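tokens incoming
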């Protein structure tokens, strides 16, 4: 592996770099405290679906389809569109994409060989059932029983599994069958929840801001209070948690699952359940799922969403699943018939052998060793640049990077993101994980405003290219001062603000 030389560190190893900027801070004419004064924030607001006003409709002067309202883009879509405006292409070798939440899909040491062709019977050209191919549903149920339900009387069967074309499709199917309820969610969390809660109006969002000083730990006692005092009936959360890289496990997860037996539906997005990194003295091979603490698979109101996308490193297959009580699965069949029509039939058949429990153990072990090495490498490089990560990722393949100790204007996620686009690198500004369906908050007041999410999903060479770009931004700020930052962003390919 080539050794990457970090430029002069932006800060010391203790993560206190402000001393380097006592002189250059004078280059900043004023301290920007509101989004109206920031070019990066105005570009964000001008993008369809991100304005404060509700309902969010397209420009009336340009409207060609009456009544269309933009739901707002997810972080990845917005950031990729901004990258396109700056010359990004998917096949470019010059760019580093640390934004998209996708794992590398090629071979890794110790894993089973990658699939690169499939064969299937002629009748697989037909539609699959909206609940999915029965054999795959049974394979999913069997895997959960082997991994999490050894010795338990209640087991999952194919009737507890619905195959869906992607995690978002699974969440949308679930949201479509939930009646008018208060839905509790946490900030920060997965960016797509913002759109789900904004579009499916029967889910009334009740946010809880997690505390960075407490390492974004879920407060079960607060959740119990919300259930009693606010009438919360649905809890939605990712676990392991995107974007902070934390995980709810053991007794805390058992307690969370227990809420499902108190007239509360618990929906857990478990796509990163294999990305668990052992601490000192622990062994590789760990895993996490609420399925371990479900007592009765048809009585406990626990809904699990997972699939091939992250753990199996097959995002392009769009084969995922929802696991839960039988009566939920029959409802999801109905919502799937009008929402998405079902998952790819041939790829469902091809997925069945991938769920063999012995193969799963092999792939999970290889994945954890490979991704932990990447995590540790990137954390080390960031620390040498004075960007010490305070909330260490225990799981997932994300780093939740706090920029607050940097000087304005590069101390907020949107501006830092725009500056990195100039260096051909993509990250995701933290504000996309501030699930705020009404979009009313001044972005500078968001608890996620000073963060960016970095993905160490891509191959190591791409990761190093992105960290090199971050180093160039910090070095430029140190040498040239801050007057050149916070402006002169390319609005679109033709130079205009996006519509």
């Amino acid at each position: 592996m080539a050794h990457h030389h970090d430029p002069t560190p932006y800060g010391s190893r203790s993560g206190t770099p402000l001393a380097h900027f006592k002189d250059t801070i004078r280059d900043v004419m004023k301290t920007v405290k509101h989004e109206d004064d920031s070019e990066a924030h105005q570009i964000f607001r001008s993008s369809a679906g991100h304005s404060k006003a509700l309902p969010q409709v397209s420009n009336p002067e340009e409207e060609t389809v009456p009544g269309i309202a933009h739901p707002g883009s997810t972080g990845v879509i917005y950031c990729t569109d901004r990258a396109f405006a700056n010359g990004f292409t998917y096949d470019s070798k010059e760019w580093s994409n640390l934004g998209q939440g996708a794992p590398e899909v090629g071979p890794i040491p110790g894993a089973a060989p990658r699939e690169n062709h499939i064969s299937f019977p002629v009748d697989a050209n037909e539609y699959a059932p909206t609940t999915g191919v029965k054999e795959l549903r049974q394979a999913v149920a069997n895997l959960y029983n082997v991994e999490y339900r050894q010795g338990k009387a209640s087991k999952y069967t194919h009737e507890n599994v619905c195959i869906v074309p992607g995690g978002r499709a699974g969440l949308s199917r679930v949201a479509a069958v939930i009646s008018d309820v208060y839905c509790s969610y946490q900030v920060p969390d997965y960016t797509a929840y913002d759109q789900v809660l904004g579009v499916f109006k029967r889910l009334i969002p009740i946010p809880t801001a997690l505390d960075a000083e407490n390492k974004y730990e879920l407060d079960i006692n607060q959740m119990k209070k919300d259930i009693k005092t606010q009438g919360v009936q649905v809890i939605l959360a990712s676990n392991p948690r995107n974007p902070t890289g934390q995980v709810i496990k053991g007794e805390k997860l058992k307690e969370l699952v227990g809420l499902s037996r108190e007239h509360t539906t618990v929906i857990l997005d478990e796509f990163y359940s294999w990305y668990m990194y052992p601490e000192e003295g622990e062994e590789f091979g760990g895993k996490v799922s609420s399925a371990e603490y479900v007592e009765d698979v048809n009585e406990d109101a626990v809904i699990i969403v997972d699939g091939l996308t992250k753990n199996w490193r097959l995002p392009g297959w769009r084969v995922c699943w929802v696991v839960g009580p039988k009566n939920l699965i029959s409802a999801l069949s109905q919502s799937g018939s009008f929402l998405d029509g079902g998952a790819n039939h041939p790829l469902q058949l091809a997925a069945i052998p991938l769920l063999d429990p012995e193969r799963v153990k092999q792939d999970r072990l290889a994945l954890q060793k490979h991704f932990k090495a990447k995590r540790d490498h990137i954390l080390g490089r960031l620390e040498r640049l004075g960007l010490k990560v305070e909330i260490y990722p225990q799981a997932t393949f994300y780093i939740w990077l706090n920029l607050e100790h940097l000087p304005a204007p590069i101390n907020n996620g949107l501006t830092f993101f725009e500056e990195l686009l100039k260096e051909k690198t993509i990250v995701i500004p933290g504000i996309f994980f501030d699930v705020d369906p009404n979009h009313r908050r001044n972005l500078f007041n968001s608890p996620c405003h000073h963060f960016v999410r970095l993905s160490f999903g891509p191959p190591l060479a791409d990761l190093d290219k992105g960290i090199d770009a971050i180093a160039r931004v910090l070095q430029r700020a140190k040498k040239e001062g801050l007057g050149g930052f916070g402006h002169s962003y390319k609005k679109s390919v033709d130079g205009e603000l996006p519509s």
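note: The first strand starts at residue 96 and ends at 97.
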